[in-house]
Amino acid sequence: MSVMTVATVGIHVLDTHVVGIEEIPRGSDGALVPSITVSPAGTAAGTAVVLGRLGAKVRTVGAIGADAIGMNLRALLDAERIDTGGLVVKPDVQTSASVIPVRPNGDRPAWHCVGANATFTAADIPAATWDGLTHLHLGGPEFLGGPAAGDLLARARARGIVTSMDFLAAGDPGTLEWVSEALPHTDYLLPNDEQVRGFTGCEDLVGGARELLAKGVGCVALTRGGAGAVAITADEVCTVPAYAVDVVDTTGCGDSFSAGFLTGRFLGEDLVGSLRLGCAVAAHVAGGVGTTAGNYDLARVRHFAASAPTVA
């Protein structure tokens, strides 16, 4: 079988995870924490890391600043054998970054600086981006806007490239309208349950997903946190539970699910098998800190998916 060759286009963030936060110290007081870790994140960079670990050949395209944060983000991606030649450096803005205080139950509120991601445009995408691809994943189409995102995905589709899209923003109906021109060119839309409800105003997730299908999407594969995931096409509705795991940090779980699901589809898995693979990767990542936690690959994730218990 040929190698899955992916371009992840869009949002690149450097996350700093501060683990074990129960409260912010008062005034100028300090507190000891178990660990402070940095990792690549965002709907393009985070997904790129996981796709690479699952065996794909990945190039990533986006914007960073000419700063130490950008240098570290590029170095972390290079260490994962991601092709970072598509990262354009914006000299007048900082690299997008988040500081994430991780609570003992895995919740992770965040402080975020949008930075260079807000300056990324279609003009920054190299002409060679489409060369040799099997897949193009657009993370954060709301930053490009509908016409640019639609053109990007349409150009990929015209070359026989499988397309997928994931949102960074919360489920605001205006966001969906803003990127509506991209939807008919999207093979796989990968939102979470809150986004589907927000975009469509439909509390029933299957009904909401079908509204997205009516706008031209080929398949909606959505995550439901600890309740697992659902995939909906014009012909099928498939549901799988989440895997039971001791949660450390849920940062990057959505990006990890996307990478696992898309890998499953490339490998010929049906929708149920692809959902299970996506949930298995997300569970593994939730058991550590960030998308780079631990030492995992496709074989280990598949073994986990075949043997680990699911949430009742």
What's the structural blueprint in terms of helices and strands?
Layout: E1 5-10, E2 13-19, E3 35-41, H1 45-53, E4 57-65, H2 68-79, E5 83-90, E6 97-102, E7 111-113, E8 135-139, H3 141-144, H4 146-158, E9 162-166, H5 173-178, E10 188-189, H6 193-200, H7 205-214, E11 219-223, E12 229-232, E13 237-240, H8 253-266, H9 271-286, H10 298-307
Parallel strand pairs: 1-4, 1-8, 2-6, 4-5, 8-9, 9-10, 10-11
Antiparallel strand pairs: 2-3, 6-7, 11-12, 12-13
Round the Cα radius of gyration to an integer and report it.
Answer: 18 Å
- Number of helices, where a helix is a run of at least 4 consecutive DSSP H or I residues: 10
Instruction: Encode the helix/strand succession as letters.
Output: EEEHEHEEEEHHEHEHHEEEHHH
- Per CATH, the architecture is 3-Layer(aba) Sandwich
CATH homologous superfamily (4th level) name: Ribokinase
Whole-number count of domains:
1
Q: Uncertain runs with pLDDT below 50, 5 residues or more?
A: none
Q: What is the CATH domain class?
A: Alpha Beta
Q: How many β-strands, per DSSP?
A: 13
Overall pLDDT score? 90
Assembly state: single chain
Strand content: 15-25%
Let me know the largest β-sheet: 9 strands, mixed
The residue fraction in helices comes out at: 25-40%
Give the overall form: globular
- Strands of the biggest beta sheet: in what spatial order? 5-4-1-8-9-10-11-12-13
Coarse structural class = alpha/beta
The span between the termini is 36 Å
User: In CATH terms, what is the fold-level topology?
Assistant: UDP-N-acetylmuramoyl-L-alanine:D-glutamate ligase
